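Reading a protein record of the kind used here takes only a little practice. The record below shows the convention in full.

——
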Amino acid sequence: MKTYTPKIDDIQRTWWIVDAEGVPLGRLAAKIAQVLRGKHKAMYTPHLDTGDHVIVINASKVMLTGNKAEQKTYFRHSGYMGGERLIPFKRMVESHPERIIELAVKGMMPKNTLGRSMRKKLRVYAGDQHPHQSQNPQVLEINAKAS
């Protein structure tokens, strides 16, 4: 018996579009990370980028459950002494709503060169307009829409 390993020429990438409105951030990021890695395909191989392209719209309308909207903060550091910056979730939604989803997906991807190349296939937009109409993206359903 021989194990099938896909060649780079065998990989076919499709485009998916996800509406983030009213979807919990963790469920959304987990599903996006799965599609970016290619785990939804039968030809998934851990050492190859077999994933698809993902477009996320309405990133500013993503939700958090419980009290996380008031308690969650994002950390960054300038590299200088005392250069910590803590940004609350509410301020991040107002200023950079795309980064919320990008950072959540980044935490679920491999932390190596392959993971960085997989993350380049993610495009996040705060509103409902995107410039990728010509790719004819398919709708990716996240099964847990909160109401």
Q: What stands out?
A: The beta strands are 15-19, 53-57, 73-77, 84-88, 122-124, 138-139. The longest strand covers residues 15-19.
